[in-house]
Structures are given as structure tokens and as C-alpha cells.
Design brief:
This protein has helices at 13-24, 39-44, 46-73, 84-97, 103-117, 133-143, 153-168, 189-204, and strands at residues 2-6, 27-29, 78-81, 125-130, 174-179. The chain is of the alpha/beta class. The structure holds adenosine-5'-diphosphate and the ligand Nc1ncnc2c1ncn2[C@H]1C[C@H](O)[C@@H](COP(=O)(O)O)O1.
Length: 207
């Protein structure tokens, strides 16, 4: 079983991924953030580093998908924090549309993405954490990563619009949309319980 958690920056993916992995006793695959050699430079100068960062994330995410495939064939459960789809359909698309990645670089990136995606299996469940801008901003502030301090509201807004468009067209497997605006699964175990119940019901028909 493979559950992938998707959503905008600060939506609460990593926190939930760890909690679900603990609950189901499954392996968790987190994003390559702390050792990412481009992320800080990217936030300082997006046009300069957008292509480098996208190639880095694409490769790291692709490697993850291959590791997940191995675990799946050994019947192990997996929780994944963000997917390769979001890199291309949300982030790279937004950089290109906002003029922060050139047409040439974007085409080159998409060609690479297309070559890789045929080797990627969709998750059994895509869990979309839907959050409005105030919630995202509040949680990005709470996390307090220095390089994220200058993220513009417009950037988050564009990403949220891309998420809405992409999710409304997603048809590669089961999809569960959870509005997290009024959920606090950090401090309220009942809120975590609500999400686990929805997952069980969507995946296994239990309630
Ligand atoms: N539903 C929630 N309620 C309250 N705080 C949350 C919630 N989800 C995440 N947080 C907090 O918000 C911050 C960002 O969460 P994180 O899981 O890192 O988001 P993401 O991985 O989506 O970027 C963390 O400090 C986390 O503890
Ligand atoms: N593909 C990506 N392009 C640009 N930035 C990305 C991409 N994937 C992740 N990020 C950034 C967004 C955040 O600053 C960090 C970690 O993501 P988070 O949603 O906080 O887990 O990496």
C-alpha cells in the first residue's frame, strides 16, 4: 500500500506523513529539503536557479519512486511526503508561467520528466491537504525556515491555483481531499483520527 500526501508549502504534509507512518507502522519517505544544495539559492534568485532546483528534485523524487516500488513488491506499506507529479505540474509549471524559468529550460525539463514518468507507479491513494493562504502562511511562519521567510503571497497563491487545477484532473488512482484549514492534528488527536477514518474508508471501505 502506498499513500502519497500532496499539498502546498506549509500545508502540513511532513507532520501528517510522520504521524500516519507511526499509526500504520509503515515506512515514511520525506522530501530532500535539509540537504538540498539549491533550495536556499533558489529562494534568493529564482530565475538563476529554477532549472537546477527542478532537476535536483526530479532526480531525488524519481529515486524515491524506485525505492517505493521495491518496498511495494515486498508488500510493505509506504507514506510519501510530496510526489514527482507536483514537481512538474505545480512547481515547474508555475515557474515557467511566471517567467521564472525560460521556455527552453522548461521544455528540456519536461522532456526529462516525460522519460521518467513512464517508470513511475501512481500511489494507491493520493491525499491532498487543501489549505487556504492564511493557514499556509501561519504554518510556514511557525516552521521558521530562514530561506522561506521571503516567500511571496503571490507565489503561494499561484501554487494553490495549480494544485486546484491539477487535483480536479487527477485520475490515476484513489483521491482523498482533506480541508486542513480547521484541523490541528499536531495538538488534537481527534483531528488525526478524523483523517485516519477517511483514509480507511477510502482505501478499505471501513468506517
Ligand atoms: N493541521 C495542523 N495544525 C497545526 N499545526 C500544523 C498542522 N499541520 C502542520 N502544522 C505545523 O505547521 C508547520 C509546517 O508543517 P509541515 O508538516 O512542515 O508542512 P509541509 O510539509 O506541508 O510543508 C509545522 O510547524 C507543523 O507542526
Ligand atoms: N519542485 C519544487 N520546486 C520548487 N520548490 C520546491 C519543489 N519541491 C519542494 N519545494 C520547496 C518548497 C519548500 O520550500 C521546500 C519543502 O517543501 P514543503 O512543502 O515545505 O515540504 O521545498
Amino acid at each position: 500500500m502506498h499513500i502519497a500526501i500532496v499539498g502546498n508549502i506549509g500545508a502540513g504534509k511532513t507532520t501528517l506523513a510522520n504521524k500516519l507512518a507511526h499509526h500504520f507502522n509503515w515506512e515514511v519517505f520525506l522530501e530532500d529539503v535539509d540537504h538540498n544544495p539549491y533550495l536556499k539559492d533558489f529562494y534568493d534568485d529564482m530565475p538563476r536557479w529554477s532549472f537546477h532546483l527542478q532537476v535536483y528534485f526530479l532526480n531525488s523524487r524519481f529515486r524515491q519512486t524506485q525505492q517505493i516500488k521495491k518496498l511495494q513488491s515486498a508488500s510493505k506499506g509506504v507514506i510519501q511526503d510530496r510526489t514527482i507529479y507536483e514537481d512538474a505540474h505545480i512547481f515547474a509549471a508555475n515557474l515557467h508561467d511566471s517567467g521564472l524559468m525560460t521556455e527552453r529550460d522548461h521544455q528540456n525539463y519536461l522532456n526529462l520528466f516525460e522519460s521518467m514518468i513512464s517508470m513511475v507507479d501512481a500511489p494507491d491513494l493520493l491525499l491532498y491537504l487543501k489549505a487556504d493562504l492564511p493557514k499556509l502562511i501561519q504554518q510556514i511562519d511557525k516552521r521558521n525556515r530562514d530561506y522561506e521567510n521571503n516567500i511571496k503571497i503571490e507565489y503561494l497563491k499561484n501554487l494553490n491555483e495549480n494544485y486546484e487545477r491539477w487535483i480536479s484532473n487527477y485520475k490515476y488512482g484513489k483521491l482523498l481531499i482533506v480541508d486542513v484549514n480547521n484541523l490541528d492534528y499536531v495538538n488534537n488527536p481527534e483531528d488525526l483520527g478524523i483523517i485516519i477514518e477517511k483514509i480507511n474508508s477510502t482505501l478499505f471501505g471501513l468506517f
